[in-house]
Amino acid sequence: MRRFFSALVLALFAATAVAVPAQAHAELKSSNPASGATLDALPPQVELTFSDVISLPDGDAITITGPDGAKWPITQSAVVDKTITAKFDTTAAKAGPHTLAWKAVSEDGDLVQGTFAFTMNIAAPTSASEPPPSSVTMSAPVSNAPASTTSESGGVPAWLWIVVVLIVLVGVILLVRRRKPAA
């Protein structure tokens, strides 16, 4: 009996020793344009800065939807350490409220995502030769958390919990069987 409990305690210790604590995911720290900003000029690019090193996800990292529901064409996306930058076709910008949706992959491999809104007071230039104004600096801290953060996994894998539950169940069954009086 003593051997059984020693083995059970050892098995539970081994199962919990390999469990890693939940890792924090990257959070959006600042953006250009800023969340809730009202812009009088087109930004030269979108820039998102995170709390941790991130990478680009499969698919679009950034999408901007205008007041008419049309998406701005993103021409180039890149990531360097904690910052995603995206260049866009400036002719797609229209005056009114816009929604910027972003996705990034945290260093631990989990997908994080969110959205925020900003407003454009002017429409994009109509001719391709007209450069956008570049005298506006709009980087500001993001004070609210992302609208949604998706995590694909927690700190402890599900299979580990199943193993622990099975070990406990086997231990309880064996304990109950040993205590039954002989008939």
From TrEMBL:
Query: Which residue ranges does UniProt annotate as crossing the membrane?
Result: 158-176
Annotated InterPro entries:
CopC/D (IPR032694), CopC_dom (IPR007348), Cu-Rt/internalin_Ig-like (IPR014755), Ig_E-set (IPR014756)
In the UniProt record, the signal sequence range is: 1-26
Q: Which UniProt keywords apply?
A: Copper, Membrane, Metal-binding, Signal, Transmembrane, Transmembrane helix
Q: Where do the CopC domain residues begin and end?
A: 25-119
Which coarse location class applies to the principal site listed for this UniProt protein? other
UniProt lists compositionally biased (Polar residues) regions at 136-153
Query: Which Gene Ontology terms of cellular component type are present?
Result: cell envelope; periplasmic space; plasma membrane
Compartments it resides in: Cell envelope
Q: Which terms under GO biological process does the entry name?
A: copper ion transport; response to copper ion
Q: Which intervals of the chain are annotated as region Disordered?
A: 126-153
Highest taxon, organism lineage: Bacteria
Please tell me whether the keyword Membrane is annotated for this protein. yes
Q: Which GO terms describe its molecular function?
A: copper ion binding
The protein's name is Copper resistance protein CopC
User: Which species expresses this protein natively?
Assistant: Lentzea alba
